[in-house]
Amino acid sequence: MAVITLAELADKLGAELHGDGTVEIHSIAGTEQAGEGQITFISNSKYRKQLADCKASAVMLQEGDRPFFEGNALVMANPYLGYALVAQLLDTTPKAASDIAASAQIADDVVMGEGVVVGHNAVIESGVKLGDNVQIGAGCFVGKEAEIGANTKLWANVTVYHRVTLGSDCLVQSGTVLGSDGFGYANDRGNWIKIPQLGSVRIGNRVEIGACTTIDRGALDDTIIHDGAIIDNQCQIAHNVSIGENTAIAGATVMAGSLTVGKNCFIGGASVFNGHMEICDGVTVAGMAMVMRPITEPGFYSSGIPVQPNKEWRKTAARVMKIDEMNKRLRAVEKKLDDEG
Prior knowledge:
CATH topology of the largest domain: UDP N-Acetylglucosamine Acyltransferase, domain 1
Strand order of the largest sheet: 8-11-14-17-20-25-28-31-34-37
Catalytic activity: a UDP-3-O-[(3R)-3-hydroxyacyl]-alpha-D-glucosamine + a (3R)-hydroxyacyl-[ACP] = a UDP-2-N,3-O-bis[(3R)-3-hydroxyacyl]-alpha-D-glucosamine + holo-[ACP] + H(+)
Shape: flat
GO molecular function, one term: UDP-3-O-[(3R)-3-hydroxyacyl]-glucosamine N-acyltransferase activity
Protein name: UDP-3-O-acylglucosamine N-acyltransferase
Mean pLDDT: 96
Radius of gyration: 26 Å
EC number: 2.3.1.191
CATH class of the largest domain: Mainly Beta
Keywords: Acyltransferase, Lipid A biosynthesis, Lipid biosynthesis, Lipid metabolism, Repeat, Transferase
CATH superfamily of the largest domain: Hexapeptide repeat proteins
Oligomer: single chain
Number of helices: 4
């Protein structure tokens, strides 16, 4: 178990220490559960009331909240960021593998950097290049000529198809598939003719991808996920999509082919995006939105009908179905009033 003093934490976080810097911290917990040897945080002042009964050895908080806690405190502008950094320092998550398992199947010409570990029953095919300290979990498949950069970690049962490239310091959760065929077919008098997907997937540095997400390879050019992007669980990213730097995509989002999403966007869960269009930088899309047209101005965008009691929703749906008729009647009334005026 890692142990760090409050003084050391204050130095690493750039926080202002109030209290005993020699106190040792071994873990982080919620304000209501934290006890001796643990640190917690509040990032929203509406939770100040929890501080009165908090038993944590220290709390990360903003200056305005410090009078509400009598114990040791680390004062900082962004306690939530402090939480993230402390969680990294005290992280006890194990490696995806501890060594190169005897049951792993690794081609003779695979190039491996220093400190690479490969879990049980993983398969790494010919021509693959693995950077320093890459972790390949149990049951992973890495296809021919794929490249994985230094310090990247694949949890168990990740599939990386041929010629896919991942940059350094990436994290891919279990069950994710990178480089599967895009949905490309031509129709010949009712019969579907498959179009081989000849592009690949290029993933930048510091990209994190959740469990059971699928990112399809490009039809001709590559599908591209740029540096710092984060993608949640069970997302579908179709062929030739481009995701900009530091964009965040929440779970169950679906993106159709040849979509371009800009930098620093925030995409809410279960959103659906049409293909062959662009979303500019700095866009936030609310969860369950249906984005059918390009977005050219930064801002917050929403669509969809919030949940209602079923009886009310049925009335709403019935009215929606009559919008065209109501519009015609309204225009007729307006025309009559104009004529009479």
